[in-house]
Structures are given as structure tokens and as C-alpha cells.
Design goal:
The structure is a homodimer. In chain A, strand 7 (about 125-130) and strand 8 (about 135-140) form a beta hairpin. The first copy, chain A, contains 14 helices and ten strands. By secondary structure, chain A is α/β, with parallel strands linked by helices. The first copy, chain A, has a domain at about 1-115 and about 295-330: Nucleotidyltransferase, domain 5 (2-Layer Sandwich). The interface of A and B includes residues 143, 144, 169 and 219 of A.
Chain lengths: ~350, ~350
């Protein structure tokens, strides 16, 4: 028996073809699989492409697949339109069952099959979930960049842009972020001191044009500059990452109950830095000795969920085997978010 | 001799036909006159429509007009493309000179012709300027909703939406803004307590859908709810308006030098409320007895600037006459920003 777990993200889609005993026999990557962010035709192409690659590696066909899970952000908003992907798959010979699951549940399941645990995803956005018996029973934040995503890559990037604008506008302290960001925008550090129109630095006009010339969430592309400046001990960058860590811990605390493992994913908490260190310390303070697991995608978790939907009990050994086999298959890494 | 002053805003355009002694002999309103926000064809139509109405009232023609000033946000970014409006006017018989000026300078000039003074515009956005001898010599903020506009209508509306999301997500205190905002979004106060998917209140989903279903700046439409809740002494709303007032004063302080009058415009500081009271108190503390002037548009100021470009010295009596005549001609008021 074969199942497919699909981790359909806004940038890349990953498909895992798995056997009933948790072997990964095929792995494929496609483009965006999220119809909300990319439109249905693009999302269908992304999913199809990942699935075809995974099947091809095993010499299998869609007709051989008993069940499929698509894990995606905003999955339950899909409700009545869940056939956006089922209909095209049926046309290509798929006869099994299809289920939709949350991307957050897939991320958690990549890192743990514990009956109670917590997940924090902090990349461009930020949210925390409590998972009990394979279902999400509490969610915090995940409210998007205008209302929440506190501590996220967008949040950090916006804080950085505001700090640079603040220095250039005379309202905030000098920060090593200013030359870094001005150079990242194609200018020079000297733009911060060159007078421009109506008493402003030319660097400020450059910053304003760059920021409003892109989609707001692309501010997340500045987050690596903040990590680099914090490593060089810039106080403003250190403050931003400290505040981000506090914000993420506060979001996690909203869903905490009894002790359980913590699974984290997303560029801000996957790397060693102030936010991850703050999360580790918080976990130890709150629940004592508990696993802290970093995952790089929800691909293994989507396969875990697909196996469960097929009636198979997935234990920790099966999860680890899936994860390891996917990690080997997934080299080189798929595309990341585009930098500012 | 006749001149035309044009206050070309993103929502409405106002044209004032003035004589050399400061009489308003024609006044017209058109749609958006800002090519950046609305595109050049729409902006040309907005300006043409306002100008044609003003000329029609006086039985005058474009050929009778010696000079024209177009005051607009981002005017100096127009640089090489300033003929976007000159060419169409030339085709219709305009033989005079055309100058572009800042909307902030026009706002200030609606309220004062003093050789040194300050202007604060705080509506959807927020900025402060110092004006010396009819030119802007310092600018603060005006950085737009992603980087600044601290204390603006957008800033207040976003704080309100974040406060409501915070209450519904369990991370912030209860606030009277929550039932107000939920009702403004077509829901009911009970949505705050009705459980929805994955442990969230249904009101939170409603808020998220509404906020991301519109342009970000439309959050400014929530500002009136904040003023209303603050009048009813809601502590969260009072805190938001207090912080807005502090932010605006801080922006103004960045351009202050010697004592001078303060001219304020825009929906947040034109009305009696915490931000305006804070500005009045700050002016008195900083510069003692100085005029605090509230203006409702840059129309009179655009006419003042057009007269100056024609070589006429505009004194306080001429400015007041222009303003009063325009106020009478401008009833009923033009359209406002659309509410959330």
C-alpha cells in the first residue's frame, strides 16, 4: 500500500510517497501549492509536479495510491472548494481518498508523534499550536502581518526598516542596520549622511521607494540582516531579536497546558539565535526536560498524516525513518523566500 | 489678472480661481488629482473637472489665467514628468506658467503666511514640516504606513484592530473596541465569545478576513471607532489616542526651531480629541502664545502659492479673505475617506 503526503507551501510544494511501514520510496518538489497565495492553476501545477516526481522515482502511478493528504495554510478555509486539487488528480487516475490538513499540524508531525505536544512555526509569519491525539486543539497568533505574526520574519524585517527610517529621520538611535540595509537596497552607507530634498537624507528616500515598491511581506527579507547585525552586537538588532523571542514565547504560552515536546520550524526559530535560545529556555523553565525538535518542513509530517488517514498507527521509529529518508532525498534544498 | 491654485489630493481635487487682490471668483471640486495613487488619466480628469467648474463660475477661460500652482503629495518625485498635467492644459488654451508645490506647504499656507511656522498633517498619514519664507526647510515622518505615519489614522486604526485581535486571541485586555469593531464588520458582539475552529472565537476569523480583504490603509477607517470608544472612557481606546498624540508631538518636535504658529490639518488633529489637545498643550509649553490654526484643506494655500508665483505679496488679510470665500463656496463638503 502506498500513500502520498503533500506539504503545499506558498513557495514550494513537497510530495512524499510512503509505504505502510514508513519507508519513503519517492520524493518530489514543485512550485507554490497554495491556491490562496498563487491562484488555483499555479497551485495545481505545483502539486502535480511534486507528485509526478515522487511517483516517477518509485515507478508507480496515481492509481496505485490509496490515500493522500494535502497540508496547507488556511486549509479549513478551503471547505467547499477542496476539490480544486481532487478533480485534476481524479482525471489522472487517482482512485484513493484525499484529506486536507493544517500545515501547522504537518510541521508538528514532522517532529513528533507524541499524544500531546506543541508546535511553533516562525518564518515569514508566526503561530503556535497545541496538538492532542493528532488534532490541533488550540491556536495562537497566525493572524498575518497586519494584525499579528508577532516575532515573525516580517515583524523583524519591519522593525529593522522602521529602525533605519528612525535613524535617517532623526527620531531613533544610530544602528549598524542602517549601512547594511542601505547597501542591501543598492545604495551606500554614505546615503545616510547625504542631504536630499527638504532636509531629508537621500538614504531615506531610497528606503521609502524600496519598501513601497515591493509587497509588504517581502520586508521579511531583511531578517537575515538583523541576525548578522546582532551577531556583531549592534544593540538595536539585539533588541529586535530579543523582543521577537519574547513575542514568540508569549504566543506559545497562550496554548500551553501540560508538559509535552516542542517542535519548531521556520527560518527565524530554526537557526541558532536569540529567538531559538529564548524558546529553549522557556521550554526548560515551563516543562523541565522535554524534547526540543527543529524541523525543516512539514513533508515528513504530511506523510505521517497520510499514513494515519489510511488507518496505520505511526510510531516514533517510523517518523524518524521517514524524516531521515526525506532529508537524504531532499538535497539540494528547495528555493527560499526572495530577499529584499 | 487671474491665477488658479489646485489642491490635488488622492480623494478629491479642489481648484480656486483668484484675483490679484485675493478674491475667490471661482471654486471647483473634482475627483482624485494624484497620478501616483490613481494613475495619470484619472488625475488629469480630476484636475480638469475642478478647473472647468472654477472657470465656469467666473465666466472665464484657461487663456485668461496667468499662473497655476498644483499642490500635491510627492510633488518633487514628479520632476521630469511635471508635464503630465501641463500638456493637457496647454491643449485647452492655457498660456500661463505652471508650478508644482508640496501639499504640506499648501496646507500650511491655508492657515498662515507667517515667515516662520510649522505644519502638521495627520489624516490617513502623518507628517510635520517647518516652513521658512514660503519654503519647506525641514520634514519629519510622512514615511507611509509601513515605515512611519506615527499617530496617523492608519496607525490608530491598526492599533485598534491589533487590540481587538489581541482580546479575541487571549493576549490582550478586554476593550469596548471589540464589540464596536465586530459590529462595524457586519458581525455581532457575541462573535467574541462564540467558539469557532481550532479553539478560536469566530469573531477573530471575521476580523482577519475583513482586514486582509481590503487595502491596508483602509484600516484608517477604524479611527472614528477609537474616538467614540475613548469618549466613552474605554482605557484601551484612550491609550491609543494618547500614544497617537505623543507620536505626533514627537514628529513635530523634530522640525521645531524658533517660535512660530502651528497649522494643523487632517481628520485626526482637526477634531477635538486627545491628539489635538496634546498638540495645543505642546505648542503652549514650547513656544508660549502662538496661533494654533485648524485648516480643512490646502485649497486656500494653493491659491496663496499661485499668487506668490505671480509676484504678489500675500498678507494675512488676503489669506483670510481667500479662506472665508472658499469655505462659503465649498459647501457641501467633498467626499471623505471610505469607512471600513
Amino acid at each position: 500500500m502506498l500513500v502520498i503526503g503533500i506539504d503545499a507551501g506558498g513557495t514550494a510544494t513537497r510530495a512524499v510517497l510512503a509505504t505502510a511501514d514508513g519507508a519513503c520510496v519517492g520524493f518530489g518538489v514543485g512550485g507554490s501549492g497554495n491556491p490562496t497565495s498563487s491562484g488555483i492553476p499555479t497551485a495545481i501545477t505545483g502539486v502535480r509536479s511534486a507528485v509526478a516526481t515522487a511517483l516517477g522515482q518509485a515507478g508507480a502511478a496515481l492509481a496505485d495510491v490509496a490515500g493522500m493528504v494535502v497540508a496547507m495554510a488556511g486549509h479549513d478555509a478551503r471547505g467547499g472548494v477542496s476539490d480544486w486539487i481532487l478533480d485534476p488528480l481524479r482525471e489522472e487516475g487517482f482512485r484513493g481518498t484525499l484529506a486536507h490538513e493544517s500545515d501547522l499540524l504537518a510541521m508538528f508531525s514532522s517532529g513528533s508523534v507524541a499524544p500531546l505536544g506543541y508546535g511553533v512555526v516562525c518564518g515569514t509569519g508566526a503561530s503556535a499550536v497545541r496538538v492532542e491525539d493528532g488534532r490541533i486543539t488550540a491556536t495562537a497568533d497566525g493572524l498575518g502581518w497586519l494584525l499579528g505574526d508577532r516575532g515573525s520574519g516580517f515583524w523583524i524585517g519591519r522593525e529593522a526598516a522602521v529602525a533605519v527610517a528612525g535613524e535617517l529621520d532623526g527620531v531613533g538611535p544610530a544602528t549598524a542596520l542602517t549601512p547594511r540595509v542601505l547597501e542591501a537596497l543598492g545604495g551606500t552607507a554614505a546615503d545616510a549622511r547625504t542631504p536630499g530634498r527638504e532636509g531629508r537624507a537621500v538614504g531615506l528616500d531610497r528606503l521609502v521607494r524600496a519598501v513601497y515598491g515591493q509587497r509588504p511581506v517581502q520586508l521579511a527579507g531583511l531578517a537575515p540582516q538583523v541576525f548578522a547585525a546582532a551577531e556583531a552586537q549592534d544593540p538595536v538588532a539585539e533588541r529586535i531579536l530579543r523582543d521577537a523571542g519574547e513575542a514568540i514565547v508569549r504566543t506559545l504560552a497562550l496554548v500551553e497546558e501540560r508538559p509535552g515536546p516542542l517542535v519548531v520550524g521556520g527560518s527565524i526559530v530554526s537557526r541558532d539565535g536569540a529567538p531559538q535560545r529564548r524558546l529553549r529556555a522557556h521550554l526548560a523553565e515551563t516543562f523541565g526536560e522535554q524534547p526540543f525538535v527543529v524541523v525543516d518542513s512539514g513533508a515528513a509530517g504530511a506523510a505521517v498524516l497520510a499514513l494515519r488517514h489510511a488507518g496505520i498507527v505511526v510510531d516514533e521509529a517510523m517518523r524518524v525513518r521517514l524524516r531521515d529518508e526525506i532529508s537524504r532525498a531532499a538535497q539540494p534544498t528547495p528555493p527560499r523566500i526572495v530577499s529584499l
